[in-house]
Amino acid sequence: MSNYELINFKTLGDERGSLIAIEEGYNAPFDIKRVYYIFDTKEGVIRGYHAHINLKQIAIVVKGSCTFILDNGKQREEITLNSPNKGLLIEGLIWREMYDFSDDCVLVVIANELYDESDYIRDYQSFISKVNNAKN
Ligand code: TYD
User: Fold this and answer.
1) What pLDDT was estimated at residue 135?
2) Confidence class for position 50, pLDDT limits 50, 70, 90
3) For ligand 1, atom 12, which residue shows the shortest CA distance?
4) For the domain that residue 47 is a member of, what is the CATH number?
5) Structural domain that includes position 76
6) Is the beta carbon of 47 within 6 A of some atom in ligand 1?
7) Which atom of ligand 1 lies nearest, measured to the CA of 114?
8) Whose CA is closest to atom 2 on ligand 1?
């Protein structure tokens, strides 16, 4: 499926341990404008349920694990994130849901735009219409 990819971060480290830096053009293929993180997610919770019109994001589980459902309107795929060495780059029209958060999960998201509710598509049927219009 297009519109997402796993990035294997270049890891800096020495005998003291590991360090990963993310800058625009280094481990992130876009200008970074916002960082947020999700933690203390309660058992059984499913987050997301939306797509974005223009936003690009990299999701990194720096601690614990959680699973992303990625839906491009034709196919649904699941990807479990459980390593601080990997980033899930999501761009374009992708409906996402996140679930199965471990108690200790810390999900960091790096984005190329500031928070803008008008960039969200929160209705699944509207998402499907957008996908179909984009093809025509
Ligand atoms: P939302 O993006 O729906 O969360 P998720 O996709 O993880 O389920 O955001 C939840 C709430 O937080 C919503 O009211 C918008 C607000 N919010 C901000 O104010 N700034 C942000 O950067 C983000 C991501 C959300």
Assistant:
1) 77
2) very high
3) 115
4) 2.60.120.10
5) 4-135
6) yes
7) 22
8) 48
> Is residue 50 among the annotated active site residues?
yes
- In the set 50, 63, 86, 130, the catalytic residue is 50
Q: What is the phi/psi pair of residue 28, to 5°? A: -140, 125
Kindly compute the dihedral angle of the four CA atoms of residues 103, 106, 107, 110, in this order, to the nearest 10 degrees.
Answer: 170
State the total domains in the chain. Answer: 1
Q: Judge whether residue 1 has pLDDT over 80.
A: no
Helix (H, G, I), strand (E, B) or coil at 129: helix
47-52 and 95-99: which strand pairing?
antiparallel
Going by C-alpha positions, the residue among 32, 64, 59, 34 that lies closest to residue 48 is: 59
Average pLDDT (56-68) is 98
DSSP label at 41?
A: P
99 close to ligand 1 (CB < 6 Angstrom): no
pTM more than 0.85? yes
Q: What are the strands of the beta sheet with 86-90, ordered from one edge? A: 4-8, 86-90, 57-63, 106-111, 34-38
**Ligand 1 atom closest to Cα of residue 122:** 3
